[in-house]
Amino acid sequence: MNSKIPKDLIERAYQGKSTKEDALLLLEVPPFELFKFADELRFLAVGDTVTYVVNRNINFTNRCVGTCGFCAFRTNNGKVLSIEEIMEKVREAEKANATEVCIQGGLLPDVGLDFYQGIVEAIKAEFPEMHIHSFSPMEVYHAAHISGIPISEALRRLKRSGLDTMPGTAAEILSDRVREIICPLKIKTGEWIEVVRQAHAAGIPTTATMMYGHVETPEERIDHMLIIRDIQKETGGITEFVPLPFMPYNNSVGEKMIKEGKYATPGLEDLKIYAISRVLFHGHVDNIQASWVKLGKKFAQFALHCGVNDLGGTLMEESISKSAGASHGEMITAEELEWMIHGAGRVPKERTTLYRGTNGLASGNSLRMSGCGVYE
Ligand code: SF4
């Protein structure tokens, strides 16, 4: 059978030079050809190892002054965890062998950077080895604004307090047209890019997410990925790309969609996103993560054959996706993740947040990161 994927497109992908037109064309080829191509690129980038991290999510509050129309998590008067309550959760995480805590929360109206630094410093004082992967670009922007300091200064202070890495959340779709519809008061595309670039400059690597499946076009999804690729070319500070399908329940954006007869993305569309991200990021971002919380365990396992090489974290608790209709649980054990990975014919490996020592093969970003020494 002749491949529907043109040879010159394949060549560009191998060279890390896939274009927007390439990605649009790949959307039209038979899906299993696309998956096979992405799987080959996955093998070239990271081999057969599939990673996961033992971690704990901690959401310190769901109280938020934000107005994001896709959010089912926020309230006007939710509880804010005290430092001691956060520490109790970190202690439980440490007892469960977690190597990372991922802390995020709503935007509190009168809480500046001291609050965030206080959390980080308390954790590092008791658990200097615990990797702190916390605070979205939106939270950093908000805290810097309340404290009246530049973003770069806020990031430098957080780094000094002990912040190790940041989740590249709050990215949604990096298009101001889309943001105006789904989250008009959130940081704009240029502001998200700037916080992430500044974080990398301060020695704080980040992940990069994409929440898709609401009002965006296929072109806007691809533009989003190309923006992230451009950041990576400049800084080398992105550890992984995490596509996140939109959960349309209990939020106004989703309710409007459902009234118009649109629902959550079909599975085939999710798998194409993972595969296309593998193609677009080849040579730039080695790690493509599937969220078992959003996709479900069985589908996340299948995604391992469509370009994915990481299954994220064990989490221990999860409330953001659950409030928007995810029903796949709040925690998974390392043993079950390894079972899933073995079942896909791959080699499981627990990783650190920074994927140190996991991917034995060529690695665009990790080579640059170890070369410049900033992220050592
Ligand atoms: S997504 Fe985050 S910033 Fe937006 S309303 Fe929800 S909690 Fe607030």
From TrEMBL:
Residues in Radical SAM core domain copies: 50-284
Entry-linked InterPro entries: Aldolase_TIM (IPR013785), CofH/MnqC-like_C (IPR045567), CofH_family (IPR019940), Elp3/MiaA/NifB-like_rSAM (IPR006638), F420 (IPR034405), FO_synthase_su2 (IPR020050), rSAM (IPR007197), rSAM_sf (IPR058240)
Keyword Metal-binding: yes
Protein name: 5-amino-6-(D-ribitylamino)uracil--L-tyrosine 4-hydroxyphenyl transferase
Swiss-Prot/TrEMBL catalytic activity: 5-amino-6-(D-ribitylamino)uracil + L-tyrosine + S-adenosyl-L-methionine = 5-amino-5-(4-hydroxybenzyl)-6-(D-ribitylimino)-5,6-dihydrouracil + 2-iminoacetate + 5'-deoxyadenosine + L-methionine + H(+)
Pathway given in the UniProt record: Cofactor biosynthesis; coenzyme F0 biosynthesis
Essential cofactor(s): [4Fe-4S] cluster
Superkingdom in the source lineage: Archaea
Organism name: Methanosarcina lacustris Z-7289
Keywords in alphabetical order: 4Fe-4S, Iron, Iron-sulfur, Metal-binding, S-adenosyl-L-methionine, Transferase
Gene: cofH
